[in-house]
Predict the structure.
Amino acid sequence: MERLQKVIAHAGFASRRKAEQLIVEGHVKVNGKIVKELGVKVTSSDRVEVNGIPIEREEPVYFLLYKPRGVISSVQDDKGRKVVTDYLANIEQRIYPVGRLDFDTSGLLLLTNDGEFANLLMHPKSEVEKVYIAKVKGIPSREKTRSLEKGIKLEDGMTAPARVKMISMDKKKQTAIIELTIHEGRNRQVRRMLEAIGHPVMKLKRERYGSLTLQGLKAGEARELTAHEVKQLRVLAQAK
């Protein structure tokens, strides 16, 4: 037996927190009866409905995609542009991205149908490290990179301290390649951080997420996570 809110989250219907809200507000029925109490457990034979719509039980699945540039981190796009789920079109489950990467950003992106897992990783308290490689205009001084390491003020507040490593620089072209490690997930955060120190991003790629890397994958390729990798991410997200 599983808790009702967990079943709803696993079905990809809503995050666990949202599922709890739906239950309390009387939007959920089990075997035709409204259930408002949290903690109720159901079996695979129980019929669960949210707002009158029966949820389909799905086994949780977890995928790692090497997202190419020029792809939307969504399950659909009203402008007809390519979306990340196009690269996993043969997957039967209704998967969706965990967080997002910008249209012009490539790299590691997770997709799942496990709402509880996705919510855990995207929670503000989650401190799963994300490593980005950025090609920027100009060559940042040590003083500027140190400001990123201390935390820098953006329009939505101070960032947490980052780790910054200069990979290479081209004095002739006046460009540099920087490795930036953060654990937050604000919208366009890396781009905004580098713009704030006067070195706008020319190219950006997420190379690592927690202990996961893009090793063995080409842009547009995906693989399923192992049970151990999923467990590791849960542990990392809950560590703080």
Q: What stands out?
A: The mean pLDDT is 92. DSSP finds six helices and 17 strands in the chain. Residues 2-54 form a domain with the Structural Genomics Hypothetical 15.5 Kd Protein In mrcA-pckA Intergenic Region; Chain A fold (CATH 3.10.290.10).
